[in-house]
Amino acid sequence: MHPLDLYERCVLAPDQLAALLRSIHGHAPRILGEDFAGTGALSLAWAAASGAHAVAVDRDAAALGHHPPHPRVSRHAADVCAVDAPCDVLYVGNFSIGYHHSRAALLDYLRHARRRLRAGGVFCCDLYGGPGALEVQVADQDIPLPEGWVRYTWEQRSVEPLSGRVCNAIHFSVFSADATLIFEHEDAFVYDWRLWGLAELSEAMVEAGFSVPRVYPKEPDAVGEGGEVLVEPLRPGELEEDYVVLLVAGVE
What we know:
The chain is α/β, with parallel strands linked by helices. The protein has two domains: 3-129 and 195-250, Rossmann fold, CATH 3.40.50.150; 131-194. It has helices at residues 3-10, 14-25, 41-47, 61-64, 103-116, 198-207; strands spanning 31-35, 53-58, 73-77, 87-92, 117-129, 137-145, 148-160, 165-175, 181-194, 214-217, 222-223, 229-230, 243-250. The chain has a seven-stranded mixed β-sheet, with helices on both faces. Strand 11 (222-223) and strand 12 form a beta hairpin. The N and C termini lie far apart (45 Å).
């Protein structure tokens, strides 16, 4: 299997995430902007709804072309600050907000994102943190496949607390149903990120012109029979010590 297919199977839940973003917006958003989109799996899930459109942006043209074209998904192999297409929800996933290594670069991007959003729009990015985020460690998870299973390994390879820079890697080991190792993808994906804290990222969003951000869980509070989700922002005291969350800010 291609590493991109394994990534989608082990890491992403695009249908659930699309429903979660619609719930967070709250007013029938029509256009999704997906920055640092990778394969654009979220954009494809978003566009599956009647009348919905998506704009997927990523520097990696090969990743963007991993899936067949969709008539309501516009794909741009470009820097995220080079695309001005308006949207109702702008999403940055896979902790990709960390590709902005300096506060100046972060503010430039957030101001660009703010200009893209239509009235009532929301900007969402995922973020991880807590004491465990500053530790060198490895975590494994076994995910079933149609004929066997894959071991998904998340490695926090290095951490520099003074600069906030981290190096993380994802590895895949694919096994047959009888537990025979078929192949491995070591360093399938390697990331060089600035690990932004919730407080400093929130302050930068406000400085860029957004409303005061709210913190949401990345998993819905409840899922209805039709796939619709319910989610509420976290209240003081509800954030876990080690967390993966969505930081959400709107425009008036």
